[in-house]
Amino acid sequence: MLLTTAEQHMLSGREGHATKKCMEILVALGEIYGAKRLVKVSSVQVSGVSYKNLGDAGIEFLSDLAKDGRARVRTTLNPAGMDLANWRTQGIDEGFANKQLQVIDAFGKLGVEISCTCTPYLAGNEPSFGDHIAWGESSAVAYANSVLGARTNREGGPSALAASLTGRTPLYGFHLDENRVPTMLVDVTTALKTMEDYSAMGYFVGKKAGNGVPYFRGVKRAALEDLKTLSAALASSGGVAMYHVEGVTPEANASPRGLDVCQFSRRDLAETASALNDEGSPDFISVGCPHCSLKEVATIAGLLRGRSVRREFWICCSRKVKLLSDRKGFTKTIEDSGAKFACDTCMVVAPIEDLGFKIVATNSAKAAHYLRNNGLRVRFWPLEKCVKEATRTA
Ligand code: F3S
């Protein structure tokens, strides 16, 4: 791989131990994927922040880099394993909390913003069209490539951090025009009325698309929240890192020809939603996968006004959205009902199975998928039904 003089200096160790180590990671990655060179990035988002996933080996890796490494571009973090301010009210064990705080401390020393959200684009880290970036969270990667028109591969924790500490990433995959074109056509023959319909569609298509680039035709409208949940679902049942929606996303040009066509019908919608439902009454309800926008928080506040929550109910969002919610008065309405904000974390990366919960209701196909993987039973319900269930008298 061709390296500039500055990049060769980084690799030789002239800029310190952490930079050298990071450059070694990027060069190895570039060689595996046949990249000809590195490209400068304007933004990084690091996933793999929860101690639940990182373990002690992760803390050691981060602490080693933090000895002399420093972020060179704006770098934000994916959710951690707990609300960093209110972990006690979440019932998080003190031992886990101490380890999680060590992880956060190491990221802080590296100059990473402790934002802890999977929707960095709603919290100030919003790249522009055409920007090369290195993001890790799969739902945010799909959103950035597809909706924002920025360019990123799905980075692992170490490669995203390496991009942050060098300001570079190998030029391959979704950084190149030829890999951003559709590989399959999806004819949407049913009306998509709710966010959860988009989530189910993403889950259905993700399974068929694998690592491909689906092109959706027949979608009449799509709000930010619809695309947010579609991105997450596509990247959870499959490995979709980019998609197009005709008339909606910026790189969706005229309908491509000669591709395999799959349909998404009313029946597919109903069957997908039903397959994501287990039996039983939920003892835990959580929405905000990916993290809620302010509009979603406003809707939840409207549904909870004057009501009392009777089951553990988490609303996951970034600290920035929570701050806006405070100012708008939504937080008071929500907290008065007994529901809890879960900032910095989510129902999947927090160790909720260790808190004794068995059945989780959520309005996200992605969350349902991973919660099942974590050994929990799930109900995949629309937002209104989740809120209604949270307030239902037993
Ligand atoms: Fe975000 Fe957690 Fe879902 S990180 S996308 S809320 S699984």
Describe this structure in words.
The chain is α/β, with parallel strands linked by helices and 394 residues long. It has three domains: 5-177, 2-Layer Sandwich (Aconitase, domain 3), CATH 3.30.499; 181-274, no CATH class; 277-391, Aconitase, domain 3 (2-Layer Sandwich), CATH 3.30.499. The chain is 41% helix and 15% strand. It contains 14 helices and 14 strands. It has a five-stranded parallel β-sheet, with helices on both faces. Helix 10 (294-304) packs across helix 12. The longest helix has 16 residues, at 17-32. The radius of gyration is 21 Å and the shape is globular. The structure holds FE3-S4 cluster (F3S).
- CATH homology group of the largest domain: Aconitase, domain 3
Number of H/I helices: 14
N→C terminal distance: 63 Å
How many discrete structural domains?
3
The main sheet orders its strands as: 12-11-10-13-14
Q: What structural class should be given to the helix and strand makeup?
A: alpha/beta
CATH architecture assignment name of the largest domain: 2-Layer Sandwich
Structural shape: globular
- Which residue ranges are poorly predicted, with pLDDT under 50 across at least 5 consecutive positions? none
What's the CATH class of the largest domain, please?
Alpha Beta
Sheet of most strands: 5 strands, parallel
* Strand proportion: 5-15%
Fraction in helix:
40-55%
Rounded to an integer in angstroms, the radius of gyration calculated over CA atoms is 21 Å
Number of strands: 14
Mean of the pLDDT scores? 96
Defining key terms:
single chain, 394 residues, alpha/beta, Aconitase, domain 3, five-stranded parallel sheet, four-stranded parallel sheet, 14 helices, 14 strands
